Amino acid sequence: MKKASAFKLSLIALGVLATAGITTTTAIAAKTDDGITAQTMTDALHTVMAADRKIYTKLIISRLAKKEKVITASEHWKDEKALVLPAQMFRYASEEVAKKKPSFSYKLLSEWPINKQNAPKTKAEKEGLKFIAANPGKNFYTEEKLGKKKYFTAVYADTAVSPACVSCHNDHKDTPRSDFKLGEVMGGVVIRVPMK
Ligand code: HEC
Q1: How far away, in angstroms, is 64 Cα from ligand 1 center?
Q2: Engineering a disulfide at 178: which of 3, 74, 148, 170 sits with its beta carbon 3.0 to 4.6 angstroms away?
Q3: For residue 88, which of 66, 125, 56, 47 has the smallest C-alpha distance?
């Protein structure tokens, strides 16, 4: 028992330390239906998502399409026998996860989207993307009500971790922005957890 409560306390302490970019205080204490802090959950999910995304771009796209020129990467991967883009990889995985009906959902958005479907729609998404772009290194946490349901919504910066991110976006015919630089925020990952 003692161990469990100490663990809980340290999680709260961690939460407080990690909330430099928080916008609402209620969001810190928010719990998921399973009783763990929503922020602890979304932070952990995002760590895995960001790592997978970075590794896929660096070890597959950048190496095979950019450096060794073995194969190209394209949104029309099926017709062109090309590699699936990092953003498509992310979306297909998110759709696969959704089939399991987990207690969260996630997507990749941007204020400067190549695909207009990836523009922010809700107030929290718009505020979140603005916040992470203006405050590098910080995450955005809030609560939002969509329909009748309340959600804990977290937005994490999606940064240009490889030169491949920058060159592909800057050169794409549909991009509304062509001055992205390495290390810059290009968009954000939105993770949503329904609240009690
Ligand atoms: C080879 C080209 C290519 C590479 C490399 C690439 N992207 Fe993209 N990215 C795209 C295209 C095309 C889309 C739109 C795809 C869709 O939604 O169908 C996209 C979508 C996105 C989106 C969602 C908003 C939008 O523009 O539609 C973000 C954010 C993003 N990419 C960031 C990155 C980052 C960060 C990297 C590197 C880790 C990266 N991209 C690598 C081509 C690329």
Answers
A1: 17
A2: 170
A3: 56
